[in-house]
Amino acid sequence: MSEPxxxxxxxxxxxxxLFAGDVHPDLAKAVAARLGTxxxxxxAHSFANGERFVRFGRSVRGCDAFVLHAPAPPLNSWLMDQxxxxxxxxxxxxxxxxxxxxxxxxxxxxxKHRGREPISARLVxxxxxxxxxxxxxxxxxxxxxxxxxxxxxxDHLRAQPLLAAxxxxxxxxxxxxxxxxxxxxxxxxETWSELLGGRPIAFxxxxxxxxxxxxxxxxxxxxxxxRLCVLVDDIIDTGTTTVGATRLLLDAGASDVxxxxxxxxxxxxxxxxxxASGIREVTVTDSLPIVEAQRFPxxxxxxxxxxxxxxxxxxxxxxxxxxxxx
Length: 326
Hints:
Elements: E1 6-9, E2 12-20, H1 25-35, E3 42-46, E4 52-56, E5 64-68, H2 75-91, E6 96-101, H3 120-131, E7 135-139, E8 154-157, H4 160-170, E9 176-180, H5 186-195, E10 201-206, E11 218-221, E12 228-236, H6 240-251, E13 256-264, H7 270-275, E14 281-285, E15 299-302, H8 305-316
Parallel strand pairs: 2-5, 5-6, 6-7, 7-8, 9-10, 9-12, 12-13, 13-14, 14-15
Antiparallel strand pairs: 1-2, 3-4, 10-11
């Protein structure tokens, strides 16, 4: 019988090895359990000046390595950890190295808005490639064009079907309208509408103010009166956009407001801000770790471990990741 994480191809045995940093151990263990393997043991520590060190406890020569890491705060430190792990695997002769990033760091900096600004999402892609990543698996990029920043294959997984199915299970028979919190999320709202069988869409328009001293009020486009409004986004960070949209929708006569987003960054006072907003429910995934201080009564967390594990399995067996979207 083959060991967990092995697969024979003729006379050649392929070996899957899963690696993970210390930032999100629960997600790593859940992915490993679904794959029928274990997270490879490693030694990691910081030197006195803050530099990081990583060494793997087993031989990785010739393996198909998957490095699962979720850059949570402090984001830059955890990103550096993943780069070091990728470099160590490449130098130790892993056959193929895949960086698994449930949350892609710097994804919102994907273009220049004005002169003398960076395109940090491209920089991260370059760093991952230079460190040794042959392939990237990620979930719900802020904008799809970020896929093109990386020189190798990118498997861009979608969590919206998981969240949409959960919504229908919990709120059957409700008159639902999908709401984009700004014009940039209208395409995302259209995707949600398709997943929910063609539900209507509304969006919030933010007009530019002629006088900065008197901000222009946001304008709601669409009929929400008496309906269950579902605010959709890819990231909830400070929560200010979600809170402002919730108040606007409730003032317009919405019966209830829910929010659904893939990545719950929930920085600073976001949990308290959302808890006091009047929103009924906020659903995110565990693409990032949700610590106790970030939890609040309306928060629900769905796991992307099955999605990530299935994608890793398809990549390892040279199967089709596209079928996961069917």
